[in-house]
Amino acid sequence: MSEQMFRMFELAQQGFYCSQILLLLGLEAQGKDNPDLIRAMSGLAGGLGFSGQTCGALTGGACLLGLYAGKGTPGENEHPRFQIMVNELVDWFKEEVGSSCGGINCEDILGEDLQYKVVSVQCGNIVSSTYEKVREILINNEIDFDEARE
């Protein structure tokens, strides 16, 4: 098991969900801590508050891209390719996850387990592959994953 997978497993055991895990990993890579952001990310869990809608790994992945390339202050601009990066992630997710799970909604992926708020091994694999895809997208756009924006 890779160090990254072990860390994801550890965070899941602590009760964090897909979207939260992705942002925790991004913040840790930057040497930051932001409990308010992680708390806010819980609203994406289980497909938007466990409603079964869009998977939290996808929405969390888009938020992780935003952490690195989005607008955060009035004087700051989002990266010129930010929307393209998010669209690339969505297209990849539809192809990689949606095609094998019957859709990109949490309900498609978890089925009946959604009602029990069960985080499955499948979820762990999806979070891990989403994390790697986000890193790849950032690298391809010359954004250093280990550096925070100023």
Automatic annotation (TrEMBL):
UniProt-listed Pfam families: C_GCAxxG_C_C
SUPFAM superfamilies: Multiheme cytochromes
InterPro entries: CGCAxxGCC_motif, Multihaem_cyt_sf
Signal peptide: none
Coiled-coil parts of chain: none
Source taxon at top rank: Bacteria
NCBIfam families reported in the protein's UniProt record: C_GCAxxG_C_C (TIGR01909), DVU1555_fam_CGA (NF045669)
Protein name stated in the entry: C_GCAxxG_C_C family protein
Organism: Desulforamulus ruminis (strain ATCC 23193 / DSM 2154 / NCIMB 8452 / DL) (Desulfotomaculum ruminis)
Lineage, highest ranks first: Bacteria, Bacillati, Bacillota, Clostridia, Eubacteriales
